[in-house]
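Reopening this one. Same input as before:
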Amino acid sequence: MIRDTSAQDTPLPQRSMRTRRLVWIVGVIAAVGLAAAAVPSLRHGLSAETSVSAARLVIATVERGPFVRDLAAEGKAVAAVSPTLYAPGAGAATLEVKAGDQVKKGQVLARIDSPELKAKLAQELSNADAMQADALRAEVDARQQRAALQGAQETARIDRATAENDLKRQQTAFEAGAVSGMQVEHARDTLRKADIALRQADAGLGLKDDSLKFDVQAKRLAQARQALVAADLKRQVESLAVRSPVDGQVGQLFVAEHANVAKDAQLLSVVDLSALEVQMQVAESFARDLAPGMPGEISGNGETWKAVVGSISPEVVNNEVAARLRFVGGTPGQLRQNQRLAVRVLLDRRPDVLTVQRGSFVDEAGGAYAYVVQDGLAVKRPVRLGARSIDRVEVLQGLKAGDRVVVSGAEAFKGAAQVAIGQ
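Same output, byte for byte:
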């Protein structure tokens, strides 16, 4: 037979009426308390359009205090002076250095072999010598012709003196009755002819002298012009030895050894590592606040260096603007070309400003509203925001110090006027 459990059952004593009444009263009081505590939450829950868990939100408190506007970005070290050298003429390129070699200013880095340019230089030098000989020959011819004209002038002067003396003799003889008056007149005409011949000889010498000077000057100018042509070609031939314009390091080689290159083709680049700058890309919205001379900081290799904004690009590329910072007090020696560095630029500093932590609400609807947390509700409130930094944003209107604002996660509210925040 299967035994039951009747032997284990023990009857409980019945509660008295007073005990049951006491239990009932305590239950009623507890229910009333719970209802009273739940009334505000119930009322808020009924008035809210939706409910979002607080774990999905980032809530920050509005504070008043110093406000620093700064800009942080990643930059890279670039050479302030990094010239690219080009072929001065067409020909075969011979490289004298390799990438990474240290070079000095004036050192030959590459040579261009241009037979055509050298042949043209030889021709122009020969033409210059020929023109120099022509100029010398013109000077000799000018001296010869001037000497001949001077001889004719002296002859005319002597003829005039002879005619003058003859006239005096004839006049003396006429007065003495030895000659007739016709002979005196003949002597006087001879003197007039001698005067005319002398004046023509003087004028001819002056005109011919000017003409000879112009001829010689033209020859000299032609020679000088040809000398300039030859000098320019000589300069071009000398420039076929490409020299470094700065002290630095060979950067990149653009041609192979003994390759034929065209005129103005890229040969190589030289990097002046003693004058490094840091280039950073800045969003277009922040670029309008940047200005040359603004202070900044550059961090890398476990160190931080002071810097200043040196230049800002005038054009926008892919919604970004390039800016360069210069080191204050000299370039650190341990940096390398294209090394990545952290950059921070101080845009503004004010002592007493109402601010709140920056979040996604700044970009939602252009920062026209924010959700303020009150009694478990996120209430939509219109606001007006001002200057913005990396981690904080200035509040101009709509909020006060101590307000708790949903700075991130408000996109889950979907624009509702009130949202219940659950635990």
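So the earlier flakiness isn't reproducible anymore. For the record, The two ends are 59 Å apart (CA to CA).
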